[in-house]
Amino acid sequence: MSECTFTPSMCHIDLPALQRNFARLGKSAALMPVIKSDAYGHGLLPVARSLADVGARRFAVGTVSEGAALREAGLTQEIVPLLGGVNAEDWHRAAAHSLVPLLADREDLEKADFCCRPDKTLRVALKCETGMARLGFTAEDIPAVLEFLRARPHLAPALVLSHLACADRPLDLAYTHAQTERFTAVCDSLRVAFPDMERSLANSAGLLGLPETRFEVSRPGIALYGGNPFAGTALENCGASLEWVMSVSAPVLCVQRVKAGQSVSYGRIFTTPADMTIAVIAAGYATGLDRRLSNSMDVLIGGRRVPQVGRICMGLLMADVSSLPETRRGDEAWLIGGPVAHGQRAVTAREMADELDTISYEILCRMGAMNPRTYG
Ligand SMILES: *Cc1c(COP(=O)(O)O)cnc(C)c1O
Fold it and tell me: Could you point out which of 24, 33, 210, 332 has its C-alpha 20 to 30 Å from the C-alpha of 90?
């Protein structure tokens, strides 16, 4: 059967840029790259392989299924599924594939114990709650956790994790300090019994900007993909050298002259103030562009920015290319990234996110999931 694609738009993933970002984040022995949610839309297997090629020793995935896929692709790194086991099958697959499941409550401990093969130790990671009110053991739970684990030598606690709520907000530093202190206290009590447990607290922001959150292992996600968690803050310089890994292109389908006073696209939210040249581009909300960006985003054509005009459609959008008279059908338009002309700036996921009052993570996940991907 021939492959069926519903759009000619394309996500371009720059794996060498990913590898350079990884190298910028420090020694690979101290890193657990986070590749959950299909590597933030960049593709689980290509991203994992490319990081393995430059020395990654561990991976944090979301589901056990993602971890199993990495094993089936031949990857031998330590793999921590951050969601732990969600059903009975997950627990058995985690054990069968020697994943390091994340245990966040008493029931997880019991499930992990139950799925262990008696002849084989299962390495596990413990999740501690220090200020997200999400998943994990609290300080009060630790004595019972220790008692449970001491009685089950086939469960080997390899790692202790917690997650920072606002490390990317320098003005909230006191909260991060408090989380770090709570984490340290929990780790201290666990490591009396299990001195070899490695500690992991930092996300990208912690790793880049707050050395006291690094411990043995940091878990960078967004920074790998080029997002600076401190963009727009006093700590902006900490992530300034990162390179975006994803860019998104779509072809120009036609270029037409439109007379002054003509409305463009659905709902008539844009009317040409003068005679204009309008390019029709094959991308829309079905390919990951939020429709609320209508009339408020730029696209890059021939390395230059032009404004998008009118409602973004399902698979089409229009741009005012009056300033670029040489634009032709078949030209590549770049919605994110792409080659820039001298003195011009590419459109970034961050810029789109700001416009939508969200974060670049959401833009990347959506663009990556909703467009075909190509790797270079
Ligand atoms: C997603 C995630 C990370 C990575 O966070 P970034 O802000 O992308 O660096 C780290 N740890 C956990 C538990 C996560 O869920």
Answer: 33
